[in-house]
Design a protein that fits this description.
Bound molecules: zinc ion
Strand order of the largest sheet: 4-1-5-10-9-6-7-8
Radius of gyration: 20 Å
Largest sheet: 8 strands, parallel
Number of helices: 11
Helix content: 25-40%
CATH architecture: 3-Layer(aba) Sandwich
Structural class: alpha/beta
Oligomer: single chain
CATH superfamily: Histone deacetylase domain
Number of strands: 10
Distance between the termini: 56 Å
Strand content: 5-15%
Shape: globular
Length: about 375
């Protein structure tokens, strides 16, 4: 007899306070930020810690955290990084991080210790993927920061310093936990990093649903369907600004779910940004927390609940926590159904029938283009 009770696998929630300390570098009074010294102020970029820290706090306030398995984990290793990033980039990032921080790409400043924090952020995603594949978790959420979906192997951009999801996938593949994977990216910006990394890989389906020509402005087009080595392994779903709840659910059902049924992945990982919410300052879409909850439910119905969420963008400090909470309610099967204080307003602001019909016709065109009828 043991004093531990076997519990069924639950929803794992991976986070680490140090991920909230990532920033462009500054001082905490006389102390240079880094190591054990927490930054005193957020940097000037919209990618700031409070969106994520407030989600972490909200699940405590509502009691949801008691229904989840919360923990941190180890940073990824250099071996993990080398499966996705060239050694020259890893070394350059580490050296600049050790010497006080700086910037290597486009809109990706980091402070002292930024390399270690980014490696920890990728570690959260790696552990989330492993815990689901090994069966210790029913599903898992990684509160990763900095985010990852824009990062190219040798060029960080869009606040992303390491390709968190590909690093996690390749670690799981190296451990022979999985081979065939799908990434569903509903961050409002195009998942250009994931697309680039898996463009030649017929066993990794990369789907990005995003606001057309938002970021990066010159990527995310429908002509990018995978290389000759991997035809059909990449699918972009650009939607016009103003698309809302109904359009997102329609695109999910007719394009994303249809494509997943065709591809039959062993695991679905969501690049889970919340910047398609109507409150977001960096995009012009009209989703609510319920949109994200219902999209989670649609994917879980296809995967027997086995799913990994890797947190990406989302810049509305007050609203991101409610979006994340609703996703976690769905993942865990919690009886909690908290009030979203913005929901009524967002429902009232949904696009009119004319715009919805236009977006629906665009989706119908994509269904034909991708031969998913
Ligand atoms: Zn984004």
């Amino acid at each position: 007899m043991t004093d531990t009770i076997d519990k069924p696998p639950s929803t794992h929630f991976y986070f680490d306070e140090r991920c909230f300390w990532h920033g462009g570098g500054n001082y905490a009074q006389m102390l240079p930020v880094g190591g054990l010294v927490q930054p005193m102020v957020a940097g000037g970029l919209p990618e700031a810690p409070e969106t994520k820290r407030r989600l972490r706090n909200l699940i405590d306030v509502t009691g949801l955290s008691a229904e989840l398995h919360l923990s941190s984990t180890a940073a990824v290793t250099k071996q993990d990084l080398l499966r996705v990033h060239p050694e020259a980039y890893i070394n350059e990032f580490k050296q600049l991080s050790d010497s006080g921080g700086g910037e290597l790409g486009l809109r990706t400043p980091f402070g002292p210790g930024g390399f270690e924090i980014a490696s920890l952020s990728a570690g959260l995603v790696k552990q989330a993927v492993a815990s689901v594949l090994e069966g210790s978790a029913k599903n898992a959420y990684a509160l990763s920061r900095p985010p990852g979906h824009h990062c190219l192997p040798d060029f960080p951009n869009g606040f992303c310093l390491l390709a968190n999801i590909p690093i996690a996938i390749e670690a799981a593949r190296a451990a022979q936990l999985v081979n065939r994977v799908a990434v569903v990216d509903w961050d409002v910006h195009h998942g250009n990093g994931t697309e680039a990394i898996y463009y030649d890989d017929p066993d990794c389906l990369s789907i990005s649903i995003h606001q057309e020509r938002c970021y990066p402005q010159d990527s995310g087009g429908i002509e990018k369907t995978g290389s000759i080595k991997a035809p059909g392994a990449n699918m972009n779903i650009p939607l016009p600004p103003g698309s809302g709840h109904a359009s997102y659910l329609e695109a999910m059902e007719r394009l994303v779910v249809a494509k997943l049924r065709e591809f039959k992945p062993e695991l679905v990982i969501v690049a889970c940004g919340f910047d398609a919410a109507s409150t977001d300052p960096l995009a012009r879409m009209m989703c609510s927390s319920v949109t994200f909850k219902e999209m989670s439910a649609m994917l879980m119905a296809e995967t027997d609940g086995k799913i990994v969420m890797a947190h990406e963008g989302g810049y509305s400090e007050a609203y991101v926590p409610f979006c994340g909470h609703k996703v976690l309610e769905q993942m865990s099967g919690s009886a909690l159904d908290i009030d979203d204080p913005m929901l009524e307003r967002i429902i009232g602001q949904q696009p009119n029938e004319r715009l919805q019909a236009f977006v629906s016709s665009e989706i119908s065109s994509l269904v034909g283009y991708y031969s998913l009828e």
